[in-house]
Amino acid sequence: MTLPEIEADFAALGEPKYRAKQVFEWLGRGVRDFEGMSNLPKSLREKLKANYHLYAPKVLQKQVSQIDGTIKYLWELYDGNAVETVVMSYQHGNTVCVSCQVGCRQGCAFCASTIGGLVRSLNASEILDEVLFSELDSGKKISNIVLMGIGEPLDNFDNVMRFLELVNDPLGMNIGMRHISLSTCGIIERFDDLAARDLQLTLSVSLHAPDDETRSRLMPANRGRGVEKLMEACKRYYERTGRRISFEYAMIDGVNDTEYHARLLAKRARTVGAHVNLIPLNHVEEREFRPSTSGHMKAFIKILEDEKVNVTVRRRLGSDVDASCGQLRRKMQKKNA
Ligand code: SAH
Q: Rounded to an integer, what distance in angstroms lies between the CA atom of residue 5 and that of residue 10?
């Protein structure tokens, strides 16, 4: 809750305003229960216990990369479910990659998060907790957020919007929208709703293939929607918000990394004014796909550059700590099974 929201509740409970501020400060410090709010009178703590629910996620696993310091957390939620958060350090600050669902129903063929389907969506405070507790536990001030962990943000729209409001709160974590990226597999029905919020965040579209045949094979979300419609939605989003879209493109050996794909991708990116972010595929044990060879990647990049597309290649961080999409949670599931 924001401070004004707590103040409104406290007014209704007949509590003075400064008590709301105290509670708000405790929450920002990651207090684990109402008992821990030691400057509140016992009667108020009892009242809070009776009327509110407070839970702090527990660290089930924490892995720190020996190579680049990337930290991967596996958190236990109030109901025993688990999600992952990754903290990555760059020169310009620390980025946290958060999950927004337990599992995912989108079924992308290369992704570990979707094996086992969707269990449930996270509520806004659970997503906020990933940022807060990553910062508190790691001691690294978080300056950037990517919604690129487990789950599909546009499939959990209201909670994600509320999370953005909370994490952006100047009295709270105060992370600016320009420092936040939201990644989607292309739930185009929601693009206009997102544009209407007029947020300054970056919309990343997981494209991964510029043609329907390849994309529908990799991403069930493409079936019944199609690349053409996705491009229209992207273009409209760009026109309405003035915010350049980013295409995520995981390079998969022999699947989406040919000259044909590069040329069509260049055309798509130019039409939409999108930036292309190439990602070497992370191999997932249960999946047949392999990353493209560096030779193929180089040729692919050259075509995009020759076609005047703005292209970057994502650095691999945390490769020794299962830091990609759903891999840690997946390991725990397998162990439990
Ligand atoms: N559901 C959202 C956000 C979560 S996935 C989306 O689809 O965008 C974050 C990014 O990681 C997406 O671009 C996704 O396609 C990509 N990804 C998933 N599995 C991957 C893998 N094995 N290797 C590389 N990228 C992967």
A: 9
Q: Are 317 and 271 part of one and the same domain? A: yes
The answer to whether 35 is a known catalytic residue is: no
Closest Cα to atom 12, ligand 1: which residue?
206
* Pocket flag, ligand 1, residue 115 (CB < 6 Å): no
Cβ atoms of 69 and 318 closer than 8 Å = no
Rounded CA gap, 273 and 192, in Å? Answer: 18
259 C-alpha to center of ligand 1: Å?
A: 23
Model confidence pLDDT, tens digit, residues 133-148: 999 999 999 999 999 9
Between 102 and 333, name the one with better pLDDT. Answer: 102
Query: What total number of domains does the chain contain?
Result: 2
Model confidence at 314, pLDDT cuts 50, 70, 90, reads: confident
Query: Are residue 62 and residue 105 in the same domain, yes or no?
Result: yes
**Claim to verify: residue 39 and residue 80 sit in the same structural domain:** no
> Which atom belonging to ligand 1 lies closest to the Cα atom of 280?
24
Does residue 208 share a domain with residue 71?
yes
Instruction: In whole angstroms, give the CA distance from residue 319 to residue 280.
Output: 12
Q: Mean pLDDT over residues 249-254, rounded?
A: 97
44 and 78 share one domain: no
Active-site residue (options: 15, 84, 135, 248) = 84
Cβ of residue 99 lying under 6 Å from some atom of ligand 1:
no
Is the dihedral angle over the CA atoms 158, 164, 165, 167 positive or is it negative? positive
The ligand 1 atom nearest the CA atom of 106: 1
* Residue ranges making up the domain that contains 307: 58-336
203 bridge partner residues = 182
Q: 111 and 66, same structural domain?
A: yes
